[in-house]
Design a protein that fits this description.
The chain is of the alpha/beta class and 230 residues long. It has a single domain, classed as Rossmann fold (3-Layer(aba) Sandwich), CATH 3.40.50. Helix content is 36%, strand content 19%. It has helices at residues 11-22, 56-63, 81-92, 117-132, 138-150, 190-200, 219-229; strands at 2-6, 26-31, 47-50, 68-72, 98-104, 154-160, 163-164, 173-175, 188-189, 212-214. Bound molecules: NADP nicotinamide-adenine-dinucleotide phosphate (NAP).
Length: 230
């Protein structure tokens, strides 16, 4: 499989490069010019296309001929970075390509997610403050996801919980709605978030789903598995 990773130099992106290479995929990565060095460990085994991830020409070149596109949606700045990236991927990816996008639990596909006060606070109060500081625009990540949900491409939007570093615990478990008991622990290893993204490329059951994920070794995931076995 030929896979394009957009945002390849970030923490999630580098794990996705690693998993993709381990699975034998041919990898093309897009990252900002100043971050190319972060991919030094992989540079002999992948193609790197330097450029802004919302540069339509860069994305058009990168996704050409790719069977799968993994996109790290980041709400940086206030220049429609997320929605620009998503729109370019939707417009230029091959018709039958699998498209997998990352975001957080704060994105809701159908409005049926139930959020804790902490997530609501981050979305409402903190979100407004950081937008005012012109650092991060969460509403643009929401706009990006709305465009993805409305598209007829073969998409999956993977919604990450809080993240931590550490060794892999294996493929995270998932549920359709934040607030479901299995997700209560709200923690996933970043390396496993990346694993879920890469494996989603080959899991057609996840097409047109927005799975909210949690680490498979967290207490809520273990409890739920135990309940299911009763
Ligand atoms: N962090 C969390 O706790 C958390 C929780 C749930 C979900 N998520 C989701 O996980 C994904 C990865 O997030 P992450 O926090 O783990 O970060 P990450 O993987 O390190 O990715 C950050 C990305 O943003 C780029 N970036 C940084 N500053 C930028 C700027 N000023 N302008 C343009 N691009 C910039 C980075 O590129 P460079 O390498 O060029 O800097 C990198 O590609 C996102 O989709 C996020 O919504 C994160």
């Amino acid at each position: 499989m030929k896979v394009c990773i957009i945002g390849a130099s970030g923490k999630l992106g580098r794990y996705m490069v690693q998993h993709s290479l381990e699975r034998g995929h041919e990898v093309v990565g897009v990252c900002r010019e100043k971050s190319v060095y972060k991919l030094n460990d992989f540079k002999d085994r992948m193609t790197i296309i330097p450029g802004a991830t919302n540069d339509r020409n860069v994305i058009q070149q990168a996704v050409q001929g790719c069977d799968g596109v993994l996109t790290v949606l980041v709400p940086w700045g206030v220049n429609n970075y997320s929605s620009g990236t998503a729109q370019a991927v939707l417009d230029f990816a091959e018709d039958d390509a699998r498209l997998v996008f990352s975001c957080g639990w704060h994105i809701s596909m159908d409005g049926k997610d139930v959020y804790s006060w902490k997530i609501k606070f981050i979305g409402n109060v903190a979100g407004r403050i950081i937008r005012w500081l012109r650092l991060v625009d969460i509403s643009d990540q929401e706009e990006a996801c709305r465009r993805i949900f409305d598209s007829d491409t073969r998409w999956t939007v993977v919604r990450g919980s809080d993240l931590e570093e550490g060794e892999s615990q294996g493929l995270p478990v998932w549920s359709r709605h934040v607030g479901d008991p299995i997700l209560e622990s709200n923690m996933t290893r970043r390396i496993d978030f990346a694993l879920f993204m890469v494996q989603a490329l080959e899991n057609d059951n996840l097409i047109h789903e927005a799975p909210a994920i949690v680490g498979r070794s967290t207490p809520s995931a273990i409890t739920h598995a135990a309940d299911a076995g009763k």
